[in-house]
Amino acid sequence: MKLGFHLIYLLVIYANFFTELAQAQSLPVGTTVLEDAYRRAQLLGEIDSSISFTSRPIFPTESMKVSNTFDPIGSPDRDRLIKTDAIFRFAKGKGKVQLLPFTWQQQYNTDHPYSLNDGPMIPARGYQTLISGGFYGKYGPLSIQFRPEYIYAENKDYQGFYKQMDDNKWFGYYEIQSFSDLPEKFGTKSYKKLLWGQSSIRLTFGSISIGLSNENLWWGPGMRNSLVMSNTADGFSHYTLNTVKPIRTAIGSFEGQIIAGRLENSGFDVPDTMRTYAAWDNYRIYQRKRDEWRYINAMVLSYQPKWIPGLFIGITRSFTKYGSQKDSSFRAMFPVFYPLERKKQPDLPNRPKGPDQRVSTFIRWLCVPENAEVYFEFMRENQPESWRDFTLMPAYSSAYIFGLRKMIPLNRHKGQYIQVNLELTELEQTNANPDWLYRYLYTNKTVTQGYTNNGQLLGAGIGPGSNMQSLTISWIKGLKTIGLQLERYVHNNDFQNVSIRDMRAPWVDLSATGIIEWNWHNLLLSAKLENVLSYNYEHFYRPQNPTSGLFFEPGINQYNFQAQIGMTYTF
């Protein structure tokens, strides 16, 4: 980390030469109530329509000219529970220190884990809590954001992959576990961790910011899932060069980010590392992973053509490998500027080659007059051999997200809307894919932790081979939201097709969730109450009446209730 200390030293030196105020205060990815409120405001034409919302965290003080990132409506002092904005200025107004919001998030699962886009929270049964707070300081172009996170999870025991499964199914299950760091359980005791959280140190000049950060990232237009970068895992340390507002040119505006960072391992193994496969002379089927940190280089770039207002097109790219495999060459440090590498060698087609990698393209079309948006993202993890290869099998190692949102004004109630969100995510591979060794997205046979950090996915949180259809209908008024979310979540259909091979046994969750987001004085309150019915939990089909003789006898299902309650106090 010597390079990090040198960077911090240079930032301090440069700050003495530049006194122009530069906010560069970010709104952390996943901030309840506020984050989506900013995006809704764009649909209503209340903020700049050239902001893409495809590279987050966003920087509202720079891109939207609000004076307080966490108080977009500018609440007067009389509406505050404590009559202070907790901002302290110094050096004749050239610098300031501000207390950041105090946030307390809680979660409870009654039967088994249900986890998606919740940052450092882990997939666990029982009670879980996340606490964060801190301060933001700036002097000239130098800014420091210190916002650590503390996580505690009760981490109760629960039913995992069933021991009654036969060897073929266990072999397929370990095929995924051996090449991804996605532990079934995060140990057998309560889980506690103190993290750097949403902390950063930056130099910001105009539209550009450079620095060292540990913040969560979200790339692409998706709202429920993102293919390359989401906040399902906790943030990781990375150097960053990014825009804080659109760069305007004669041909349109640009936004983007490029990072170089470090990914960590969870340290948790599968429950039974000694399991063998009888068909292969009791071959031990679980392969231990390399205990080494991983280097990640990734980027996102979006462009809004000057001639088509509201249209955003972009690309994301990520590349990971073990730290010991990285040298000081430009190609080793910044492989995202080079094409995807093939994962197969011509002479040994089933042997893995190369790093963990992926590329996606996306489009977001914002239509302010209609208070609506449509978006699409397509990802691929392997380079096609040729244009003909891509034409014949474009879906090979691919995934996509499609979504739309529409806000319908209630004419008799000024400022109130009915909002409809629809999003489809497809990670399942087609049956036309002949190379089943590379069937599972986000897994890798060379970088055997796959695309993860601390045991959770960096990409779409639904996981390899999974699909999700999500529909949300909400009443909206300012920062206030009351909604109902209906979802169908298909767990790893690739595993179902390759190893389970029983048409009665797909693991499908149907859920209905009540959502409330509310602001009261300078408190932001949120609650989600989710009822989940799991058909064939863990792909295990158990007929309710084994003696009925019916092939499609209804199976035994499991029920989980999840409660999420959050409170944020903004100064």
Note down, in words, how this protein is organized:
The chain has 571 residues and is mainly β. The protein has one domain: Porin, CATH 2.40.160. It has helices at residues 2-15, 34-43, 60-63, 167-177, 330-333, 387-392, 493-500; strands at residues 55-56, 87-90, 95-109, 126-139, 142-146, 149-153, 191-195, 200-205, 208-213, 218-219, 238-243, 247-249, 252-263, 276-277, 283-284, 294-305, 311-322, 356-367, 372-380, 398-409, 416-426, 452-453, 456-457, 467-477, 480-491, 507-520, 523-535, 558-569. Helix 4 packs antiparallel against helix 7 (493-500). The radius of gyration is 24 Å and the shape is globular. It starts with a helix and ends with a strand.
Average pLDDT taken over every residue? 88
Kindly report the CATH topology.
Porin
* CATH C-level label: Mainly Beta
- Assembly of the depicted chains: single chain
Structural class: mainly beta
- In whole angstroms, how far apart are the ends? 34 Å
Keywords:
mainly beta, Porin, globular, disordered N terminus, 18-stranded antiparallel β-barrel, 571 residues, two-stranded antiparallel sheet, single chain, 7 helices, 10% helix
SSE diagram, text form:
Layout: H1 2-15, H2 34-43, E1 55-56, H3 60-63, E2 87-90, E3 95-109, E4 126-139, E5 142-146, E6 149-153, H4 167-177, E7 191-195, E8 200-205, E9 208-213, E10 218-219, E11 238-243, E12 247-249, E13 252-263, E14 276-277, E15 283-284, E16 294-305, E17 311-322, H5 330-333, E18 356-367, E19 372-380, H6 387-392, E20 398-409, E21 416-426, E22 452-453, E23 456-457, E24 467-477, E25 480-491, H7 493-500, E26 507-520, E27 523-535, E28 558-569
Antiparallel strand pairs: 1-10, 2-3, 3-4, 3-28, 4-5, 4-6, 5-8, 6-7, 8-9, 9-11, 11-13, 12-13, 13-16, 14-15, 16-17, 17-18, 18-19, 19-20, 20-21, 21-24, 22-23, 24-25, 25-26, 26-27, 27-28
